């Protein structure tokens, strides 16, 4: 390959299986990897600092050009466990929802579900860094990723957004997919896909080399997160994108 391919991966536990082969020394010539939280990966792809990223799917409509390059994604066919609306009161009493600054998809999903599924008259607020401390009274928050596992132990109520979407639409959900902002060489895509698959074939090894004090990682990787970008997930993705405001 004649030039580098900059790859942006999500720095959460959910992405470890997809990065396993690279962690264990696999190299694709010219490839460089950065790891960041999802909203940051999104802005890096939009500003062309990276060529491909495991980006929140909610930003796909904002890209001038986009290609979903992989058969693997961060999706769910049932409860996802790490994306929830957390509160101290039952959902119908919530008045304000703070939206995790690390997320692009789940915060958009929360808006869709609150308007069309739960039909709640709440106000939304952008999160500051310590937003989880503000979950009290009738103020709830969407929290994603590894921090959600901790929050599950703290909050009295948690509403799983993947489970709600599936109940609402009958379709699976895709949170993030490997999307490039330009065409990439076919041989890179083939090797990248193979690398993703490697960790999924070695889940026990991925579990043993990571730690999560608040949630069972084997369950997370095999029951909650669903990594294959199936036809059903693509349908769920299309349906979700139709709910988003036009960019
Ligand atoms: C299931 C998750 O999927 C994620 C949620 C994202 C989002 O809300 O923008 C983006 C990437 C994924 O890491 C999670 O982080 O818990």
Describe the structure.
Belongs to the MqnA/MqnD family. MqnA subfamily. It is a single chain. The protein has helices at about 15-25, 40-45, 105-115, 145-155, 160-170, 185-200, 205-210, 215-225, 230-245; strands spanning about 5-10, 30-35, 50-55, 65-75, 85, 95-100, 125, 140-145, 155-160, 175-180, 225-230. It has 2 domains: about 5-80 and about 170-245, Periplasmic binding protein-like II (D-Maltodextrin-Binding Protein, domain 2); about 85-170, Periplasmic binding protein-like II (D-Maltodextrin-Binding Protein, domain 2), CATH 3.40.190.10. A 6-stranded mixed beta sheet has the order 2-1-3-10-4-11. The mean pLDDT is about 95. β1 (about 5-10), α1 (about 15-25) and β2 form a beta-alpha-beta unit. The protein contains 9 helices and 11 strands. The protein binds ligand ISJ. The ligand C=C(O[C@@H]1C=C(C(=O)O)C=C[C@H]1O)C(=O)O binds next to α3 and β10.
Biggest pleated sheet: 6 strands, mixed
What structural category arises from helix and sheet content?
alpha/beta
Strand content: 25-35%
Give the averaged pLDDT, no decimals: 97
The whole-angstrom Rg is 18 Å
Q: What is the domain total for the residues?
A: 2
Small molecules (ligands, ions, cofactors) in the structure: the ligand C=C(O[C@@H]1C=C(C(=O)O)C=C[C@H]1O)C(=O)O
Instruction: Using the 3D structure, state the CATH architecture of the largest domain.
Output: 3-Layer(aba) Sandwich
Which stretches are poorly predicted, pLDDT < 50 over at least 5 residues? none
CATH topology of the largest domain: D-Maltodextrin-Binding Protein, domain 2
The strand count comes to 11
**For this structure, what is the CATH homologous superfamily of the largest domain?**
Periplasmic binding protein-like II
Strand order of the largest sheet: 2-1-3-10-4-11
**Approximately how much helix is present in the residues?**
25-40%
Distance between the termini: 34 Å
Any idea of the CATH class of the largest domain? Answer: Alpha Beta
Shape: globular
